[in-house]
Design goal:
Shape of chain A: globular
Largest sheet of chain A: 3 strands, antiparallel
Number of helices of chain A: 5
Radius of gyration of chain A: 17 Å
Strand content of chain A: 5-15%
Structural class of chain A: alpha+beta
Strand order of the largest sheet of chain A: 1-3-2
Mean pLDDT of chain A: 88
Low-confidence stretches of chain A: 107-111
Largest interface: A-B, 42 and 40 residues
Distance between the termini of chain A: 39 Å
Oligomer: homodimer
Number of strands of chain A: 3
Order of helices and strands of chain A: HHEHHEEH
Amino acid sequence: MAQTTELDRQSLEKIASFFKVFAEPTRLAILQMLRQGPASVNDIVASLSTSQANISKQLKTLYEADLLTREQRGTQVFYSISEPLVFDLCELVCSKLNRRARAESAVIYEI
Amino acid sequence: MAQTTELDRQSLEKIASFFKVFAEPTRLAILQMLRQGPASVNDIVASLSTSQANISKQLKTLYEADLLTREQRGTQVFYSISEPLVFDLCELVCSKLNRRARAESAVIYEI
DNA sequence: CCTTAATATCACCGTATAGCGATACGGTCA
DNA sequence: TGACCGTATCGCTATACGGTGATATTAAGG
């Protein structure tokens, strides 16, 4: 036996759910935008090419995954990243894909 | 402007696809098992409660994401983890969920 | 109040995919 | 070659979910 513990199905499902949050380009685009600071829903809608309904839906997903904080100011709602893991995860994966891409072409990913 | 570069939609889709591979409990279970060393398809089928067809399908997904290597020995095929990033990713997420879980109950995740 | 703006929710559609049983494929050995 | 074992693929079903337009909700201003 190693130093590892077998994860049961339920734990694996939790981990999978966590990864699933990052497995959608629209949500990644939102996270990327929020990296530069808090933004209102309208700000996000203005900079992404999808409907307001969809932005709200994806924000809810991110919020319920405890990745975002929510602050209401008047009629506007500002979201911001609350979980530093977001940056770690993106760096890890992006630098990986970056290396992989450089091995094939000249495309460079950065975040 | 910060030190960041905006990722276009295509890059975000690549990153999302990468995360999607990790977003399924069965695939995570396979990765967890392969952490202890190479295993044949039958080995994996024996230790997971899903069909051989499904195992083969998920192995293909993992293989095409360049996470696994494939070695045929007779009629058997042995798979093993080829991408160290797998460990980094799991550690990052598991330790995170571990911390989060400890904040709520006494459940401990380890991998 | 009434209007308007900002956000959230609803009902729905279309697509992607996990999972299964059945079957095909490819080695090995008699 | 024929039988058998291990693996991959096929056709299919059921379900999850991203995306949309329409509508509800909530807050500020007149």
